[in-house]
Structure to design on (652 residues):
């Protein structure tokens, strides 16, 4: 996907009306020129980000113009452009290799492409990624120019047409000989130079070809170097120089990260919060929620977070990422007592995470690739690689959760005979309110002991140097933050998790293909009301509703799976709409019954399965559960008197 920042000349549509940014004032306000008559409209950047987050604003990447008379049709409104990273592992590695050289060129030569003075940048990347076949400065200039002319679209660096990788051009026999020689000669402590390994490879291939009527085609020197360069760097160093040297090298590479701009390095992590929350309806303890949070390393500004009973997963990461990217304008309306503005928004350049399974998932890798986010993993057993977010989560637990009735403290020794479940008094929505207030009004306004400035001041200064990148539209972001799968297209449409999705446009797609065939489908696990189906002929996605909208309205995938499980247990052979609706009602009743269960584990499961009331920044509407009057609000918040204090050693 192309990402966009605010600049003079940028084309956009506001409530389907085409505009262009005519000028940007020093204080950051933008004058928008309406293309139909030249009328000017003044908007601040925070206002524009808020409009983008609500879906009213669509940005157009550089080089794209908007016709004055253009009006989106219903067909166009149900589609979204597909900027996909549909590449093999080798092609993806090559694309990211090119991007590393471009970033180095920008650091050394600025934002304007040039073919001179690039040798220093090239040598830096050669050393950092151990590239055996570095590009010529003119080649790097070509990549740089292509990337910039495309609106900084990472996909512009992908192989064009049906070009194959070096590996695919050669037979299995040739590749087997290559890997055998590399393992025997290259992966040795004698550190044989790669030139000598290639010479030995050529000699071996000449021997084999001398015995054949039809000679085998084998890699050239440059192709050989590139194939060897794609071998895992850690494995190669461990084999040639020893495991301890490799561990030390990669540990040193990740320690003490230095940043120069906001959003340059963003750290993400999960933690169970040290407090037990109660159910809003029953008053019984639900358990400890989990927090997933993104922190800007440069400014120490919290970019976004997600709180819920969902265990650490790719879903919780995508929730937090959505919150980080979009505007926080909802805070004023939802939490009127908060005094300050949460300024953070934008797409991270690099996302630093640990080696949890959720971070290594194919779906999260695809999401980061489509948002042009570079995903980096901490070296194993090196938590200091993302120490800023680790320390922050500890600070948040001590400053908020340890002061709330029902806290579990940080360890059992501190808890003593304190019964956390019996003392729990606060609901999940109350906890979210307190965390918002502490982050925005306290943490962001305190001088940080490392930067010696407040996160708000650091972020504000950073906005003067770097314009945060944004998705082109809310619809495009929603499409990216989904799960992707493959399904067979038939006259019934497509089937996803036992639900059918169909539309007139999908029918036309099947008619054009004139056959049953597999299509790429994306769906949001938090809203099963519709899916996106990829149209290979048009190169975009079609928005396809469920054929049973009454059932899927506000339905999450987890709830649907539980309903189907309940239906199967009753021994039903077939499922129709009425039976599923009855199962949904029974499932809701089961949640209410479990919420009164005395076992915390069962109540926590019920809270996780309950119909969600999402935060205002979520794109997923949900069924609203009426609340009973809260007569204990004043007594709950009396002991929570937050005061700005200087942190002790170890806080962050």
């Amino acid at each position: 996907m192309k990402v966009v920042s605010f600049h003079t000349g940028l084309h956009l549509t506001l409530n389907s009306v085409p505009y262009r940014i005519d000028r940007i004032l020093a204080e950051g306000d933008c004058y928008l020129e309406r293309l139909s008559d030249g009328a000017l409209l003044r908007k601040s950047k925070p206002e524009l980000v808020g409009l983008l987050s609500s879906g009213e604003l669509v940005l157009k990447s550089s080089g794209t113009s908007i016709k004055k008379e253009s009006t989106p049709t219903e067909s166009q409104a149900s589609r979204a452009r597909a900027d996909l990273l549909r590449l093999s592992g080798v092609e993806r590695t090559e694309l990211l290799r090119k991007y590393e050289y471009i970033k180095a060129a920008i650091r050394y030569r600025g934002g304007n492409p040039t073919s001179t003075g690039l040798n220093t940048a090239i040598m830096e990347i050669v050393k950092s990624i151990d590239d055996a076949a570095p590009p010529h400065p003119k080649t790097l200039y070509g990549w740089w120019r292509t990337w910039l002319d495309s609106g900084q679209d990472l996909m512009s660096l992908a192989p064009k047409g049906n070009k194959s990788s070096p590996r695919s051009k050669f037979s299995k026999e040739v590749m087997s000989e290559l890997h055998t020689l590399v393992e025997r000669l290259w992966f040795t402590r004698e550190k044989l130079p790669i030139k000598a390994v290639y010479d030995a490879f050529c000699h071996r291939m000449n021997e084999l070809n001398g015995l054949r009527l039809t000679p085998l085609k084998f890699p050239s020197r440059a192709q050989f170097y590139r194939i060897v360069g794609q071998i895992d760097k850690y494995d190669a160093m461990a084999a040639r120089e020893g495991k301890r040297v490799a561990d030390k090298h990669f540990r040193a590479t990740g320690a003490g990260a230095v940043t120069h701009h906001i959003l340059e390095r963003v750290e993400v992590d999960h933690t169970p919060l040290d407090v037990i929350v109660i159910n809003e309806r029953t008053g019984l303890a639900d358990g400890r929620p989990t927090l997933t949070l993104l922190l800007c390393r440069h400014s120490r500004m919290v970019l976004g977070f997600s709180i819920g009973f969902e265990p650490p997963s790719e879903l919780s990461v995508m929730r937090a990422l959505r919150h980080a990217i979009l505007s926080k304008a909802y805070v004023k309306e939802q939490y009127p007592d908060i005094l300050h503005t949460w300024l953070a928004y934008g797409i991270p350049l690099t996302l630093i995470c640990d080696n949890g399974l959720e971070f290594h998932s194919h779906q999260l890798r695809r999401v980061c690739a489509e948002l042009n986010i570079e995903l980096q993993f901490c070296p194993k057993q090196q938590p200091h690689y993302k120490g800023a977010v680790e320390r922050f989560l500890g600070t948040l637990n001590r400053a908020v959760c340890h002061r709330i009735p029902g806290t579990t403290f940080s360890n059992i020794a501190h808890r003593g005979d304190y019964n956390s479940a019996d003392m729990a008094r606060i609901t999940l929505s109350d906890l979210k309110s307190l965390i918002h207030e502490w982050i925005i009004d306290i943490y962001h306004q305190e001088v940080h002991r490392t930067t010696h400035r407040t996160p708000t001041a650091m972020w504000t200064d950073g906005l003067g140097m770097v314009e945060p990148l944004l998705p082109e539209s809310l619809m495009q972001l929603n499409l990216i933050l989904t799960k992707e799968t493959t399904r067979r297209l038939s006259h019934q449409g497509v089937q996803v998790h036992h639900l059918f999705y169909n539309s007139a446009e999908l029918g036309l797609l099947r008619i054009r293909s004139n056959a049953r065939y597999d299509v790429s489908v994306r769906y949001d696990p938090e809203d099963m009301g519709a899916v996106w189906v990829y149209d290979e002929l048009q190169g975009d996605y079609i928005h396809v509703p469920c054929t049973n909208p009454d059932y899927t309205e506000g339905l999450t995938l987890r709830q649907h799976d539980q309903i189907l499980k309940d239906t199967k247990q009753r021994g039903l052979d077939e499922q129709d709409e009425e039976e599923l609706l009855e199962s949904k009602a029974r499932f809701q009743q089961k949640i209410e019954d479990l919420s009164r269960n005395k076992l915390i584990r069962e109540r926590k499961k019920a809270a996780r399965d309950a119909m969600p009331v999402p935060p205002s920044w979520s794109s997923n509407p949900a069924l609203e559960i009426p609340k009973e009057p809260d007569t204990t609000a004043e007594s709950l918040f009396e002991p929570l008197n937050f005061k700005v204090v200087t942190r002790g050693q170890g806080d962050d």
